[in-house]
Specification:
Blueprint: E1 4-7, H1 9-21, H2 25-38, E2 48-49, E3 58-61, E4 66-74, E5 81-90, H3 91-94
Parallel strand pairs: 1-5
Antiparallel strand pairs: 2-3, 3-4, 4-5
Length: 95
């Protein structure tokens, strides 16, 4: 079942910044978000759980240099699981 992606304000800012720097990035981001909504554990996403200060969060790859940080949440009304997109950027920016 397709999961709902919820965009945080920090994620929206990161998307605008990255697409502003590289307009072609929009296409690869769109494909990644589609895969994430369809199956967060698709092997091509390299999804993994984070530890330490980022415990409880997950990361997946958009391309060789960019990652999306997210967490699984539940919609209060429907009780369905959602994916809350926290931020995005290079490895050094998000970890």
């Amino acid at each position: 079942m397709l999961k709902t992606l919820v965009w945080s304000s920090a994620f929206v800012r990161a998307v605008k910044r990255l697409i502003g720097q590289n307009p072609q990035f929009k296409s690869s981001l769109g494909h990644t978000l589609d895969k994430l909504a369809e199956n967060p554990f698709n092997p091509t996403l390299k999804t993994h759980k984070l530890n330490g200060e980022l415990a409880g969060r997950w990361s997946c790859s958009v391309d060789r240099s960019n990652r999306i940080l997210f967490k699984f949440t539940k919609d209060n009304d429907s009780g369905r699981e959602e994916i809350f997109l926290l931020t995005m950027g290079s490895h050094d920016e998000v970890y």
